Amino acid sequence: MSKTLKFAVLAGDYIGPEVMRSALRVLEKVAAQDGLTLDYAEHAVGGSAIDAHGSALPASTLAACEAADAILFGSVGGPKWETLPPKEQPERAALLPLRKHFTLFANIRPGLLYPELREASPLKNERIPDGIDIVCIRELTGGIYFGSPKRTTALEGGADVEAIDTMVYRKSEIERIAAVAITAARSRKKRLCSVDKANVLETSVLWRKTVSDYVAAHAPDITLSHMYVDNAAMQLAREPNQFDVFVTENMFGDILSDEMAVICGSLGMLSSASLGARQNSLGNPFGLYEPAGGSAPDLAGQGLANPCAQILSAALMLRYSFGLEASAARIERAVRHVVTCGTRTGDIAFGGPAVSTEEMTEAILATLG
Ligand code: NAD
Questions:
Q1: Exposure class string for 336-346: b at 16+ Cβ within 10 A, else e
Q2: Of the listed 34, 40, 145, 244, which one is catalytic?
Q3: Within a domain: 114
Q4: Which of 166, 167, 176, 292 has the highest count of CB atoms within 10 angstroms of its CB?
Q5: How confident is the model over 109-152, as pLDDT tens digits?
Q6: In this structure, are 100 and 126 located in the same domain?
Q7: Which of 263, 297, 330 is the C-terminal boundary of a domain?
Q8: Is 200:229 a contact under the CB 8 Å cutoff?
């Protein structure tokens, strides 16, 4: 009996539906080749859902995600909804509630730059002769973004104002992200760097001790190192490949993963996975898979978007939520082959001939074939 992959498709706004079409075509092809059955439907999310249903995350969309084993997400937001109050804006009103609802605590972001695309990186090319190939694992549901108290208070009768955010972590939260990092490190070079600020922050002292103890107890095969976050920011820009997998808390990961995206060139090539605390019906992690970039309103409707980030996000879905490593790796190889052979959308063409979203997708489908 063929394996059924049940996932919810939330394409979103602007280029979201364009690149999602590409990813679904690739998934259909791989499913036909590997004897898999796809069971998916598209659901409204983001600004287009606000327009159609009055909510960035309609109850019917959330229910469909609940019933699925994974979410393939496009991107949401854009100028059309930027005048809404911050809380009602598509990213905040759709993506953050999804992360919270499914406790998507582990954000996995590959930082991948093929050597042939070195030119896309702002780093001196001689520093990255083999491109970049690292992975950032960011804790996504704890830390200073969620801790309480979180408030702004008028002081001295309004003469001054004080604002407070709270950084808080539990040992159990650190252990579960350490477990994800160990799995990622095991699938690569078995090297893990934990990034913190243990010279200043109590949460980082707990972070460092917990990661050290957890790796010692559960993964003696992994070589663990520690680095302060300020140094990590410098080392990423100096010599990114000294890292293989690094794991860090929410705010540090927010900043470092964006730095990593910049040094890796175009957002059109970068995928991400956010894994939840719960298992899906197949016993794998429930996850949300999306490109690292946004809805690129500047490209929408013109066939200019690079579909690779969305296609590579679909590959991550096959790997993590469906346990289909071989199918995932085949998609990744096909994307790499097409790009390195010179078929490129504008963001990675460096002034050379550029193909459309559709042509790029066709080339990847042909390579898979
Ligand atoms: P963006 O990531 O959409 O675009 C930044 C730059 O990267 C643009 O020049 C864009 O053309 C380029 N780019 C992004 N994806 C690309 C692709 N697939 N192919 C080629 N080039 C690509 O960031 P922005 O312009 O700051 O934000 C646009 C909207 O997207 C905003 O409303 C923002 O809130 C939203 N956003 C959504 C998400 C999400 O849904 N997860 C993430 C980031 C931003």
A1: bebbeeebbbb
A2: 145
A3: no
A4: 292
A5: 999 999 999 998 999 999 999 999 999 999 999 999 999 999 99
A6: no
A7: 263
A8: no
With a 6 Å cutoff on the Cβ, whether 108 touches ligand 1 is no
Q: How many CB atoms lie within 10 A of CB 4?
A: 14
> Contact, 114 vs 270, CB < 8 A?
no
β-strand 245-248 against 223-228: which pairing, if any? Answer: unpaired
Q: Using one digit for the tens of pLDDT, what is the confidence trace for 189-238? A: 999 999 999 999 999 999 999 999 999 999 999 999 999 999 999 999 99
Residue 228 alpha carbon to ligand 1 centre in Å? 30
Residue 112: inside a domain, yes or no? no
Query: Is 245 part of a structural domain of the chain?
Result: yes
Instruction: Indicate if 180 and 309 belong to the same structural domain.
Output: no
Q: Which domain holds residue 286?
A: 1-107+269-369
Instruction: Report CA-CA distances (Å) from 369 to 18, 30, 38, 39, 112.
Output: 22, 9, 18, 22, 24
Instruction: Specify the pLDDT at position 323.
Output: 94
Q: Which atom from ligand 1 is nearest to the alpha carbon of 305?
A: 19
Q: Is there a domain that residue 333 lies in?
A: yes
Question: Do 256 and 290 sit in the same domain of this protein?
Answer: no
pTM of this prediction exceeds 0.85: yes
Residue 11 near ligand 1, beta carbon < 6 Å: no
As given in the structure block, the two tokens for residue 179 are 């477990």
Same domain (yes/no): 327, 361:
yes
Instruction: Assess contact for 108 and 275: CB atoms under 8 A.
Output: yes
228 and 360 co-located in one domain: no
